[in-house]
Amino acid sequence: MNNAVRFGRIAAMLPVSDMQRAAAFYCGVLGFSKTFENGDPVGFMILKREDAELHLTLQKEHRAAHFNVAHMMVDNANALHDVCKAHGLRIVKGLRDHDYGLRAFVFEDPDGNRIDVGQPIAD
Protein backbone atom coordinates (compact mmCIF):
# COMPACT_ATOMS: atom_id res chain seq x y z
CA MET A 1 0.00 0.00 0.00
CA ASN A 2 1.36 3.38 -0.87
CA ASN A 3 0.45 6.83 0.40
CA ALA A 4 -2.37 7.27 -2.14
CA VAL A 5 -5.00 6.80 0.57
CA ARG A 6 -5.32 9.04 3.62
CA PHE A 7 -7.20 7.46 6.48
CA GLY A 8 -9.66 9.43 8.58
CA ARG A 9 -11.24 8.58 11.90
CA ILE A 10 -12.04 5.01 12.84
CA ALA A 11 -14.56 4.15 15.53
CA ALA A 12 -15.24 0.97 17.46
CA MET A 13 -18.56 -0.72 16.62
CA LEU A 14 -19.96 -2.34 19.76
CA PRO A 15 -22.77 -4.87 19.51
CA VAL A 16 -25.41 -4.44 22.21
CA SER A 17 -28.48 -6.52 23.04
CA ASP A 18 -30.41 -3.61 24.59
CA MET A 19 -29.86 -0.22 22.97
CA GLN A 20 -31.53 1.80 25.72
CA ARG A 21 -29.47 0.13 28.46
CA ALA A 22 -26.26 0.66 26.47
CA ALA A 23 -27.08 4.31 25.79
CA ALA A 24 -27.92 4.86 29.46
CA PHE A 25 -24.52 3.43 30.44
CA TYR A 26 -22.36 5.23 27.88
CA CYS A 27 -24.23 8.55 28.14
CA GLY A 28 -25.41 8.52 31.75
CA VAL A 29 -22.37 6.90 33.37
CA LEU A 30 -19.45 7.67 31.05
CA GLY A 31 -20.70 11.05 29.82
CA PHE A 32 -20.92 10.40 26.08
CA SER A 33 -23.45 12.32 23.98
CA LYS A 34 -25.67 10.81 21.32
CA THR A 35 -24.96 12.48 17.97
CA PHE A 36 -26.93 10.16 15.66
CA GLU A 37 -29.44 7.34 15.81
CA ASN A 38 -31.22 5.33 13.15
CA GLY A 39 -34.16 2.95 13.03
CA ASP A 40 -37.46 2.44 14.81
CA PRO A 41 -36.72 0.87 17.18
CA VAL A 42 -33.23 2.35 17.24
CA GLY A 43 -30.76 -0.15 15.81
CA PHE A 44 -27.70 2.07 15.41
CA MET A 45 -26.33 4.95 17.45
CA ILE A 46 -23.23 7.15 17.35
CA LEU A 47 -21.87 8.46 20.65
CA LYS A 48 -19.09 11.00 21.18
CA ARG A 49 -17.13 12.46 24.04
CA GLU A 50 -14.11 14.70 23.40
CA ASP A 51 -12.00 12.78 20.83
CA ALA A 52 -13.71 9.43 21.50
CA GLU A 53 -16.41 8.01 19.25
CA LEU A 54 -18.37 4.79 19.68
CA HIS A 55 -20.89 3.19 17.36
CA LEU A 56 -23.52 0.95 18.94
CA THR A 57 -25.34 -1.63 16.87
CA LEU A 58 -28.35 -3.56 18.12
CA GLN A 59 -27.73 -7.30 18.02
CA LYS A 60 -30.46 -8.92 20.10
CA GLU A 61 -28.64 -12.27 20.18
CA HIS A 62 -25.29 -10.69 21.07
CA ARG A 63 -22.85 -12.89 22.99
CA ALA A 64 -19.77 -11.10 24.25
CA ALA A 65 -16.34 -12.07 22.97
CA HIS A 66 -13.69 -13.27 25.41
CA PHE A 67 -11.20 -10.65 24.20
CA ASN A 68 -10.94 -6.87 24.20
CA VAL A 69 -13.07 -5.26 21.49
CA ALA A 70 -11.94 -1.65 21.96
CA HIS A 71 -9.07 0.34 23.45
CA MET A 72 -9.90 3.65 25.11
CA MET A 73 -7.22 6.21 25.99
CA VAL A 74 -8.04 8.51 28.92
CA ASP A 75 -6.20 11.06 31.01
CA ASN A 76 -7.24 9.57 34.38
CA ALA A 77 -7.46 5.78 34.46
CA ASN A 78 -7.86 5.80 38.26
CA ALA A 79 -11.02 7.92 38.05
CA LEU A 80 -12.57 5.79 35.30
CA HIS A 81 -11.67 2.62 37.22
CA ASP A 82 -13.48 4.07 40.26
CA VAL A 83 -16.57 4.86 38.14
CA CYS A 84 -16.62 1.32 36.73
CA LYS A 85 -16.37 -0.22 40.20
CA ALA A 86 -19.01 2.14 41.62
CA HIS A 87 -21.45 1.02 38.90
CA GLY A 88 -20.80 -2.68 39.52
CA LEU A 89 -19.03 -3.37 36.24
CA ARG A 90 -16.83 -6.43 36.02
CA ILE A 91 -13.13 -5.57 36.08
CA VAL A 92 -11.45 -8.21 33.92
CA LYS A 93 -7.87 -7.01 34.45
CA GLY A 94 -7.08 -4.82 37.42
CA LEU A 95 -5.61 -1.35 37.30
CA ARG A 96 -1.81 -1.36 37.16
CA ASP A 97 1.20 0.24 35.51
CA HIS A 98 2.73 -1.67 32.59
CA ASP A 99 6.31 -1.59 31.32
CA TYR A 100 5.04 -0.43 27.91
CA GLY A 101 4.17 2.96 29.41
CA LEU A 102 0.47 2.73 30.22
CA ARG A 103 -1.53 2.58 33.43
CA ALA A 104 -4.32 0.27 32.32
CA PHE A 105 -7.26 -1.94 33.17
CA VAL A 106 -9.97 -3.85 31.31
CA PHE A 107 -13.69 -3.68 32.14
CA GLU A 108 -16.85 -5.18 30.70
CA ASP A 109 -19.72 -2.89 29.69
CA PRO A 110 -23.32 -3.98 30.50
CA ASP A 111 -23.31 -6.21 27.39
CA GLY A 112 -20.03 -7.88 28.35
CA ASN A 113 -17.97 -6.02 25.71
CA ARG A 114 -14.42 -5.81 27.04
CA ILE A 115 -12.93 -2.33 26.92
CA ASP A 116 -9.19 -1.91 27.48
CA VAL A 117 -8.48 1.44 29.14
CA GLY A 118 -5.07 3.10 29.06
CA GLN A 119 -3.45 6.24 30.37
CA PRO A 120 0.12 7.21 29.42
CA ILE A 121 2.38 7.10 32.47
CA ALA A 122 4.09 10.44 33.04
CA ASP A 123 7.88 10.35 33.10
Describe this structure in words.
By secondary structure, the protein is of the alpha/beta class. It has a four-stranded mixed sheet, with helices on one face. The chain starts with 11 loop residues before the first strand and ends with a strand. The protein is globular and about 50 Å long. The protein has two helices and eight strands.
* CATH architectural group of the largest domain: 2-Layer Sandwich
Report the portion of residues in β strands.
35-45%
Profile the largest sheet.
4 strands, mixed
Q: Strand order across the biggest sheet?
A: 1-4-3-2
Tell me the domain tally.
2
Count of DSSP helices?
2
Q: What's the level 1 CATH class of the largest domain?
A: Alpha Beta
Q: What is the overall pLDDT average?
A: 94
N/C terminus separation: 36 Å
| Annotation, overall tally of beta strands | 8
Low-confidence stretches: none
Rough outline: globular
Query: From the alpha-carbon coordinates, what is the Rg to the nearest angstrom?
Result: 15 Å
Secondary-structure element series: EHEEEEHEEE
Q: What is CATH's topology name of the largest domain?
A: Signal recognition particle alu RNA binding heterodimer, srp9/1
The helix content is 10-25%
Helix-strand makeup class: alpha/beta
